[in-house]
Each structure stands twice: as C-alpha cells, then as structure tokens.
Design brief:
Strand order of the largest sheet: 1-2
Number of helices: 9
Strand content: under 5%
Number of strands: 2
Shape: globular
Largest sheet: 2 strands, antiparallel
Number of domains: 1
Distance between the termini: 6 Å
C-alpha cells in the first residue's frame, strides 16, 4: 500500500468512525471492495426512504419541461437529450444554483470528446476520462450529485443502506484524490484504473 492508499483509507476510517484491520485492507483492490469493507464495519438504520429517488425528483422539478428538447426526464435519459450542448453549457451553473447542490464540473471534453480526455492532477498524475458527462444518464448524474453533496444529503450517524456508503466513499475518493467524480466507478481498480498507489 502506497502513501495515497493509506491516506485514502485513513480518510474513510475517520469519516465512518471505524478501523479497517490490516488483513482487511490488503484485500481491497477495487472501489467496490472498499465499499464492502466499510459496509461490514458499520451499523445501518434502514428506512423506506430512497435518497436517489428524492434527488431524481429534485432534478426533475428544477428543470422546466418547456426548456428541454424531448419534454421527458427519466433515469435512463441521456443528459445531452435534455438540452442542446450549447444550452447545457449555458444552463449548467443555473441548474446548480437552482438545486442548491454541487454538480460535476464540466470541461471541454464533455462537449467535444475529440479534444482530449486526460486531466492532470498536481502536474503528475494523468486521469483518462472515458465518458463525457453530456453522454451520461440522469441516473449517473444523480449518483454523482449525491457523492458530491454527501455531507449535506446523508447523515453519517444514520446511514440507511449500502448505496449511501457507496456514494460517500466515491465522494471521498473524488475529493481527496482529485479524480473527477464521473470517473470514480465501483468496478474500478483503485491502483490500476484510478492511479491511487
């Protein structure tokens, strides 16, 4: 385990108020492994409330149907199907203000994938972006919004389910490691895909 991995693990432990044993830590290879490890070490308080549904309806209610191209917002709707790329670029910060929640940062790559898909972090780690945010679904956007706003949306003392653990962990990886939230996926290898040593 390198310094970045240890720092990430300590941040996760501090956030959830847990300790991950060395033998457990050695078995963590993917983001999902990390989520599973955290989930095994916490107590949840299940309820009937669905956080992703709540945020989905907030998104749906914020975007006026008269403003969008196809007049229908569903979880599997692709973001670029809602607005033209020009309108999306213009409205992204407006949507963020209306929602009072942080949205993923958008870059030139999100509007033109041919421009180049690598982002540098502190000048030496390069992250290859695979999917422009504009080509992602509303469901993916909801996941990213929850991760970016987990402190506002999830009570750490009353975690309801594994999904909330997933969103918090992804948010910590984004924040602490500087990886775009859209590139933190549960199937990713922490070292090979995300470059965290």
């Amino acid at each position: 385990m390198g310094l970045d991995s240890v720092e990430l693990l300590m941040s996760i432990e501090n956030k959830f108020g847990i300790r991950i044993a060395d033998e457990q830590a050695k078995k963590i290879n993917t983001v999902q492994d990390l989520i599973d490890c955290v989930y095994k070490n916490i107590t949840t308080r299940p309820t009937d409330q669905c956080l992703s549904q709540k945020v989905f309806y907030k998104v749906k209610n914020i975007i006026p149907e008269s403003d969008i191209i196809n007049n229908k917002i569903e979880p599997d709707t692709v973001i670029s199907e809602l607005y033209s790329l020009h309108e999306l670029r213009k409205n992204w910060s407006i949507l963020e203000k209306r929602m009072d929640l942080k949205l993923p940062d958008i870059h030139a790559f999100d509007f033109n994938p041919n421009i180049g898909s690598s982002l540098k972090f502190l000048g030496h780690r390069t992250i290859k972006r695979n999917l422009p945010i504009t080509q992602s679904t509303i469901k993916q956007l909801i996941d990213w919004i929850i991760s970016l706003n987990s402190e506002k949306l999830i009570d750490i003392q009353k975690i309801r389910n594994k999904y909330e653990v997933e969103r918090i962990v992804c948010g910590i990886i984004h924040k602490n490691m500087g990886i775009p939230i859209s590139e933190v996926q549960v199937h990713h290898s922490i070292s090979n895909d995300l470059g965290i040593n």
